[in-house]
């Protein structure tokens, strides 16, 4: 079987989970899908591990790191795909955007879990990929292991009327705990930070920017809105009081940070009252998205919207699609 | 644009909804997907409407019916696909199985909403289609407009550990009403019949056979179990008492007819206690399926598992896939 060679940019939780998955799934992928995914380089801040024949993933010693950055590796190492997993910069796209653009310009397939390049340049990058013979895939950027983007192939022929989702697990954990335990926002945030569900600087989550990026990606994919991140009307959850959440619960509702998109109303993120029996009422760190369709009616997908393994699973699915693997 | 010609077998709710959809979506399909789906024959019990150039769907007069059955139409009318929408016979596959087999043998693509041919002969029909250059698609047979089968392309690379679902809307409506209103089984069944959610002979629904057929299809698609309908251990909901449902509610549960499949436990359908906060707790006629995955964790899909428009939407999605339409 011809190897499908991969350069991995980044060495955080998701990259490590992906490398682990490449080892554990190797035999399954070979037997069932006749495909061999071979990591030929892993590039982290301290340098790069490179082996054109395929890295020994259980032997990635720090002393074997070469002083190369992603640009140099892309220049010098033959591969079919770049997996871009460096930290997200929603403001500018960051270095990730440079990595993705360079790889696509070379005709590589690019798979990313990084929202930065997607919200800043998806149309440009997709057009360039089409021209250069590669592809640009980013399933993992929205809802991690919930296949919200590849689902599109399954929804063809019907009109998507609107999209509503709970897309930020941190905010949802906080709002869930406020509802269940009567906590105030600050108490619930501290608890979330203690459990590792919220970062020390929780702004991107609780102020709605992360959810805004995700709903922007969905809106552009499904509704063709051509929306930019700065077009989204965003309200976060900092001003949601414990009293408001308790009052909602008493009346049969929960408060959820709902991201919405439609032709008529554009793209929004705001705390909303959601009926207890609504599919949008998910608990804890879960994510959900509901697509409302003209003929097929609503369809909702629920699952884990974050986590190293979950995100890696979405990256692997994209890599298989890039390698031309289809269900048998 | 080269027409993709369709023969429709059956003229019930789903067939009419599909024909309606072909008219209303015609322009969208041409503009966005560059495809023209042209019905060249509709075959009902009383005869067939045939026009090799494409039927005028707003002028299907009874007097224009020709005395031809599906076999004769397949013999005489050139087409790319058969859409099989005659009534379901779960016991033998019925005439639908003959229709499907003949069409596939001729190299046509076949799309069906009929579980009969699928549970009785899917492996044979898929092998034949692969040999003859057509395809056999049946998204609409499980969960109607919930894309439970085409989702498989989105879940590649991960291991599906088990599948659990609520797949029969009639039973779920009855159990929901028993829980909400304290009705007994017979009262709730009568109400469901009055509202058109249950048939005069509700056996296939309340005895679990319909759910058994659907979970069999999912088990074979995702787990490769090679299960036959008669392998499923099925228990219906006739013996579920109002008292049992009320007791469950008091303890934070609902009773749901849950269809399950795993390598270890095989395929089962039985009433189960489901926690209130579980994604399997869907109300009324909704359907849900949860896939448990090794890496990606659980993902649940919820939507309308029945209805003419919903089923037609799934049939149309399959037709587009058969016609080679992919997301742009």
Question: Helices, strands, pairings?
Answer:
The structure is a homodimer of 328-residue chains.
Chain A: E1 3-9, H1 13-24, H2 26-33, E2 36-44, E3 47-50, H3 70-76, E4 81-84, H4 94-105, E5 109-112, H5 115-132, E6 136-137, E7 160-166, H6 169-181, H7 185-194, H8 203-206, H9 209-223, E8 233-234, H10 242-250, E9 253-262, E10 266-275, E11 286-293, E12 299-304, H11 308-322
Parallel strand pairs in A: 1-2, 1-4, 4-5, 5-6, 8-10
Antiparallel strand pairs in A: 2-3, 7-9, 7-11, 9-10, 11-12
Helix pairs in contact in A: 1-11, 4-5, 6-7
Most extensive chain interface and residues per partner: A-B, 49 and 49 residues
Please give the radius of gyration of chain A in angstroms.
20 Å
Helix and strand run of chain A:
EHHEEHEHEHEEHHHHEHEEEEH
* Overall geometric form of chain A: globular
């Amino acid at each position: 079987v011809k190897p499908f060679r991969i350069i991995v940019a980044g060495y955080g939780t998701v990259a490590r989970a992906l490398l682990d998955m490449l080892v554990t799934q190797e035999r399954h992928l070979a037997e069932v899908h006749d495909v061999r995914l071979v990591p030929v380089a892993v590039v982290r801040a301290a340098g790069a591990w490179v082996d054109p024949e395929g890295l020994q993933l259980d032997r990635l010693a720090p002393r074997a790191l070469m002083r190369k950055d992603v640009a140099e590796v892309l220049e010098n190492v033959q591969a079919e795909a770049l997996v871009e997993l460096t930290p997200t910069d929603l403001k500018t796209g960051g270095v990730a955007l440079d990595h993705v653009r360079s790889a696509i310009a070379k005709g590589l397939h690019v798979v990313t879990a990084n929202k930065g390049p997607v919200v800043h340049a998806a149309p440009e990058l997709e057009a360039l990929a089409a021209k250069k013979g590669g592809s640009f895939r980013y399933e993992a950027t929205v809802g991690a292991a919930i296949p919200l983007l590849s689902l599109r192939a399954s929804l063809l022929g019907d009109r998507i009327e609107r999209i509503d989702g709970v897309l930020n697990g941190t905010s949802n954990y906080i709002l869930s705990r406020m509802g269940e335990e009567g906590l105030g926002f600050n108490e619930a945030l501290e608890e979330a930070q203690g459990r590792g569900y919220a970062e020390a600087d929780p702004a991107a989550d609780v102020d709605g920017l992360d959810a805004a990026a995700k709903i922007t990606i969905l809106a552009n994919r499904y509704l063709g809105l051509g929306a930019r991140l700065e077009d989204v009307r965003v309200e976060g959850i900092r001003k949601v009081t414990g009293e408001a959440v308790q009052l909602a619960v008493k009346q049969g509702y929960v408060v959820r940070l709902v991201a919405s998109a439609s032709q008529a109303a554009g793209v929004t993120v705001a705390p909303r009252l959601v009926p207890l029996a609504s599919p949008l009422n998910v608990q804890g760190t879960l994510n959900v998205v509901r697509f409302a369709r003209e003929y097929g009616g609503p369809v909702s997908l629920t699952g884990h919207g974050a986590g190293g393994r979950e995100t890696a699973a979405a990256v692997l699915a994209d890599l298989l699609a890039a390698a031309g693997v289809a269900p048998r």
